Amino acid sequence: MNRRLRNRTRQKQINILHTTTRKRHSRKQLTQAATWGGIVLLMIVAVGVGLHFGINFVLDRVLYSNPLYSLNNINIDPPNHFSQRMIRQAAGLELGENLWTLNLPQITHDLEKLPYVSSAKIERHFPDEIIIHIHERVPVAKIFGMNIDHGTREMFYLDRDCIVLKPRENEELPLLPVVTVGLPNPELEPGTRLEQRGLACALEILKAMDHTPTLHTSIDIRSIDLSQPLSITMMTTHDMAITFRLDNIDEQMRRLRQIVEYTENPLRTIRTVDLTPDQYVPVNFYE
User: Fold this and answer.
1) 238 to each of 225, 244, 270, how far by Cα in Å?
2) How far is residue 8 from each of residues 3, 18, 21, 147, measured CA to CA in Å?
3) Residues 278 and 213 placed together within one structural domain of the fold
4) H helix and E strand count, the chain
């Protein structure tokens, strides 16, 4: 019995020693692995930092500080519509700037703040030139209102998007329809958009007329009356009054075109056309 007990005790002692040694060996391996992992990570970080600063140094010397890419020419397309001084001030451009450092999205955003600029596109042409393509806002109607900067009643333009435009200095005023009533003494500021449903519909009607050959050649709008909330009355240069609804503009253009084509007889001059009914368009003629 004593011999068996001794054998069991020895076996337990051997197992305990073996387990303890194995745990110590595993901890040592984990410590070594963590150490090497940290060394490798530090090497990767060091290489990355070195590459970052090295690439930046090369780019700065080759591109960003290279006098070869200094801005010397600013070309504006279309020419003669905007002064280079105005464009440079609006875009914050200075001759001598490096082409690679120009923030083109920011320059585009700043240019599009100009009242007469609908959209802009900037192109870099290396080594020393940029081209600025400008899509200009085109006036389609006139409107009178208070200039909030000077407190005076003045004439302004409107483009297709209801953006207020101020006439340029020494500009020959174009023949455009005038909004006569419906916007009593509005305060106007160039570059702002007028939010008025009747006005937006009136400009849409003018656009539809321009794109309809028969109407474009036979009808010339002189004034626009927005005094009625549900209709628009336009007077032509031949004293013909046309009343429109604020909806179904395409259908109204079709009916108006049919009426104009049907009454091309010079002995019968149209006096009024009412396009507001759903059916049967009332038309009156001068005697």
Assistant:
1) 16, 18, 9
2) 9, 15, 20, 108
3) yes
4) 6, 13
pLDDT tens-digit series, residues 158-180:
999 999 999 888 778 788 999 98
In a shared domain, residues 71 and 58:
no
Both 147 and 253 in one domain: the answer is yes
Q: Please state the length of the chain.
A: 287
221 contact partners, CB below 8 Å, separation of at least 6 = 177, 206, 209, 234, 235, 236, 237
Is there a single domain that holds both residue 115 and residue 171?
no
Rounded Cα distance between 208 and 256, Å, is: 11
Which domain-ending residue is among 30, 65, 100? 65
| Residue 39 one-letter amino acid | I
> How do beta strands 117-125 and 129-136 pair?
antiparallel
In terms of domains, do 173 and 233 share one?
yes
CA angle 46-50-53, nearest 5°? 140
Taking the C-alpha atoms of residue 263 and residue 104, their distance in angstroms, rounded to an integer, is: 55
Residue ranges in 81-196 assigned as alpha helix (H): 84-91, 104-111
Residue 25: helix, strand or coil by DSSP?
helix
Same domain for 175 and 131, yes or no, is no
Three-point CA angle 153, 159, 165, nearest 5°: 40
Residue 191's SS3 state is coil
Instruction: Give 33-84 pLDDT, tens digit per residue.
Output: 777 777 777 778 767 766 665 665 555 555 677 888 889 999 999 888 888 8
pTM for this entry: 0.71
| Segment holding 241, helix H or strand E | strand 241-245
Report d(CA 78, CA 81) in Å as an integer: 7
